[in-house]
Amino acid sequence: MHRIRVHVRVRGRAAGAAVLLAALAGCSAASNSAPAGSARKSARVVTITVVPKGRQAAAGKPVQVTAAGGRLTAVTVTDAAGHPLTGHVSADGTKWNSDRNAAPGTAYQVQARTRAEDGTKGTAASSFATAEAGLVNKVDWRPGAGTTVGVGQPISLVFDRPVTNRAAVEKQLKVTTSNGTKGSWGWVRDWSGKDRVDWRPEAYWKPGTKVTLKAELNGTDSGAKGGWFVRDYTTSFTIGAAQIMKVDLDSDQLTVMRDGKAVRTIPVSGGTPGGDTRSWRGTAVLLAKEGTIKMNSETVGLGNSYNQMVDSSMRLTWSGMYAHAAQWNAAYFGKANRSHGCVGMSDADASWLYNRVRPGDPFEIKGKDTKGTVAPGNGFGEWNLSWADWQQLSALR
User: Fold this and answer.
1) Distance CA 154, CA 68 (A)
2) Any idea what DSSP says for residue 102?
3) Would you call 273 helix, strand, or coil by DSSP?
4) Which of 26, 124, 226, 266 registers the highest number of CB atoms within 10 A of its CB?
5) Does the pLDDT value for residue 323 go beyond 70?
């Protein structure tokens, strides 16, 4: 059997004892020869093996270091940049397992300290490398780092490629909050057609909550046709004031509630009754403030009904429902629903609202003649599911 020579430093009662780590050759070896002229003593030798091994090892599995003939007292595993792969030694000291999987396309250095049964201490070093990933999966996430968002804002991860190993991925997503807020992940199909997982609390966030997500995905296999994740992701954000827009399309009024108090009521006009021109109902979370944009009815399946520039545009769904300025509809504000699905208001009211809302603010919309509830993947429609139903969408339920 071919053996790899490893530099070993040993100290203790048996000065001639040595410990060899030969993981790269798939075997282990040891030597206990004593220096010439010295009294020969019986020294126990610890042999160590490491898996994975080789220069093209499979990724996606924990690193394991095993000792025979003694105990492991410390193990460190680092990549080429010096980043550690943390782990723990078993109670009997014979095994060390990494807390996370070995990542693809990564070279690792292994350092081990041992104690033989007779007390002899030793150190050993070795290395291995994992094969490059064939397919790589990436993540787009909201909200962005350092942002302040509304009380309805979920954490949302949209994956570039399919995710079939959902439980494995979800286990790597860690959410911490400043006040112990509890929540649940739920898997939905994003409006783009991609796989998406969101985290929301049972009820709206408490203002002032600080939230951190650590998506420790590097080394996780997302499954068939999905490929590997080759990096970690993190984001931290803060929850702002409790600001909720109550939209009543029966009375055609939008009331801005801030910290439980009504601060302004705005006359509006929603989607025209009948067919696809009706507005959605339920909770629609503000996705983005897009300002002045060109709205074209052909992009939302309404033919050539309109094609114009619109001010103070606040996106509520990916399917194209906005709250925005609609001065051309002034005759209907507070009186009737005559839009193509959006919630329109005067230029002055739209500008006032636009300057005060932030992404994550909920718009709670009700009305008898609407076309249905905002779906979970059509923006952030998860608030339209009961807490029990939302929890059922977790891969770890």
Assistant:
1) 49
2) P
3) coil
4) 124
5) yes
